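Retro notes - structure team

What went well: the batch runner handled both jobs without manual restarts.
What didn't: labels got mixed up in the shared folder, which is why I'm recording both outputs here explicitly, each with its sequence directly above its tokens.

Job 1
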Amino acid sequence: MSKKIGLKEAISIGIGGMVGGGIFAVLGLAVALAKGGTPISFLIAGLIALITSYSYVKLSLKYPDRGGTVKFINEGFGIGIFSGGINNLLWISYIIMLALYASAFGSYAPNLFQLTDNKVLDSHIYASSIVILATAINYYSIAVVGKIESYAVIIKLIILLSFVGFGLYGLIGNSYLEQLSPKHWESSFKLLTAGMVIFVAYEGFELIANAAPDIENPEKNIPRAYFWSVLFVICLYITIAIITVGSLDFKDIATAQDYVLAEAAKPMLGKIGFSIITIAALISTFSAINASLYGGSRVNYEIAEDDELPKQFTCQLWNQPVGLLITAVVTLILVNTLQLESISTAGSVGFLLIFAVVNLVGFKLAKNTGSSKSIPLIGTILCFFAMLALLIQHFTVSKIDVFIALGIITFSFIIEYIYKAVERTKQHK
């Protein structure tokens, strides 16, 4: 019998899933889009995550399953092309998150040790190497993955909370504090779309759903785990955004966009602070890659088990599902072909659509789960319109990002349609 997960462990799964590589990868991007209104953008994204977590609470209590989101979507829509397409999108979104984390690792690592004279080449070498290392660890032992996660959550939280402590002290009398005033905010629409680009920094709370069957005293602990972890991370991200915008000139933030959190530690702690935050970023992104590789291969396995992908995906390659190797290979391709903003946009669009569908399931099954109908409905509308706002805003700035995001969604449904068509043909023979 597996050991039950207590409240503290359940909350740490949620916090660990959110405070992975996301904040290190997208903070500079958020400031570039929202300027002084960056804390507001993090608040908007956090509130959408909090509303969505209500649907996750109710569905996790009614349908506790290690398939998590996959299980909820199948319960709401049955096994078919729509549910299969959304579940495929979930798997691909995991891969996009992996590419985002690896890209962040590649941006921070050359600041500690340069391999060549070309920083872009160094970033790609580091990003690819860390994916390969994490894949090897996943093949070696899942227990090692779990140990790395438990230590990494503690280390990164200690470092980030120390950054917050020193940062808030350092803000006193800082000349850049004025950058947070509303006159430096972008338009309301831009604040919303900046919040949606960085929405990927919040998506990790959904990992609690996969642990739901093992959480002790679920009626009390599942709601607490979701709500406390999301609320804690909202407060943490807003504070980090305030410190970053209040400590550095916008020009310096733009120059160090890919490793801005390390740069923000410099005014308070100098080169040592820069190095400590860089190390925290490397630990965080590495642990996020490790956990997401495992999560991505599990999602792929669950989809195949539910007959939404070929049964061959349930096969073992060495000692893990074949999906682990496919997940790793596609991650390597993405991280070496796409820009950070394209990866972040595609990830946010994917998760906003997935969360809109999960909220819709929460609305559809409200009677079964004993939940309010209005909160999941609000969540569905907010996620869907936030996704549209993100696509509209990006279409004026970078059409290619929009085509990549929409192409990934379309591809998720096309492969499901083809698979179902082939299966039908086989049955009629």
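Job 2
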Amino acid sequence: MKLKSHVSALALASASLAGLAGAAQAWSLEEAAKPYAGTELEVLFLDRPGYNAAIQMLPDFEAATGIKVNHTTVPYENALGEQVRDFVAGGDLDIALIDLVWIGNFAENGWLVPSETFINNPELADPALDMADFFPLVLDAFGSWNGVNYGLPFDNYSGLLFYNRCMLEAAGFDKPPATWQEVMDTYGPALTKDGKYAYALQSKRNETQSADSFARFLWPFGGSFLNAEFRSNLNSPESQAGLQFRQDLMQFMPEGIVAWDHAETVNALAQGDVAFITEWSAFYSTLKSPETSTIADCLGVAPEPAGPAGRRPALGGFSLAVASQADAAEQAAAWLFIQWVTSAANAGRYLELGGVPARQSAYADPALAEQFTFIPALVESWQEGVPEFRPRFAEWPAITEIVQEYGTRMMLGEISVEEGAREIGTQMEAVLEDAGYYSGAKPLAQ
């Protein structure tokens, strides 16, 4: 285990006295951070635009505070396991990176410090924090568990339809598809030819299969993983219709799509190999940059297509939270960083650098909506309150493994949609039964 920088008890006591003496003075990050100068923080980041944006912003924070933020970049599929191992071992991480389906696991294991610990501390709480400025849907989904907030939204997404406007126009279309049925009946056949494909659906056997592929075709068709009794709803007519639709839609996707993750899917659109994709808003900067995209001037953005149950775009993203295993000085320094990087004051710059902030105020400027064409569709999805595509409970890490296996086998044709859904449902209910949901040991809703 590495040696961490610790602030002495005397320094902490001095900080408290200084805070009392300066209570009447205006709060500033520089003053709040003085007792923690020299503290080093450890956090995991992903190799995505929002994290690269934060990394570009870090020198300003470190210069203002003297706090060093050490970030280790890992693939998404490694982020959960690495953090769990670190927390179980009482390791080095001071900040938790939390996907919305990990928060139950992290909170119930006591790995997070509630945000009110810091919000109620006038020495650490920025008066401009303004929790109400976060989109309520995003704040609740990514940072809260059982009515307690643990983290602030960071790198947040809505599923959007990214499309090659020039490719559609060449095929005779003057707008993107509004419904999934249009994709199947009209756009798919017209755009799949000459080695090009209409659509690519990231479906690799990891959380991408569960969240970006499998779940994406449940909600718009009226389906869901679970019913009100927490029993499997995957064999309902609505869920079956959505999963079968996904299977039929594969005729308009590139071969080997089951092995494609986000990078392959985004690159296929960027290189003009597919006409459209449904992807997270975080990839807008990649697709819009001439350095990484050959279709930057032809890029169009729209809400995800609607299904029989209406428009139900995917919901994804992360929050940052203070790890309970950190010592008092590290916890204070971690909060100052989280509060700073997710602040309304920094949201505009974060957006400019490629991130997707969850601050309502960041999207109020019409000029920004004109510059970043994904904003109207994003705001619409967060304001309307899209459903949680994956159940938010501590047992999701076990369930997603089941969905990944059988969801992939469905797409490969190794098992029918009906059989795969039944097997997922059986094993999912077994996990929930062992956890105590059916005996009353755990509530059916979180």
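One thing worth noting from job 2: Residues 23-156+316-384 form a domain with the D-Maltodextrin-Binding Protein; domain 2 fold (CATH 3.40.190.10).
We'll revisit the folder naming next retro.
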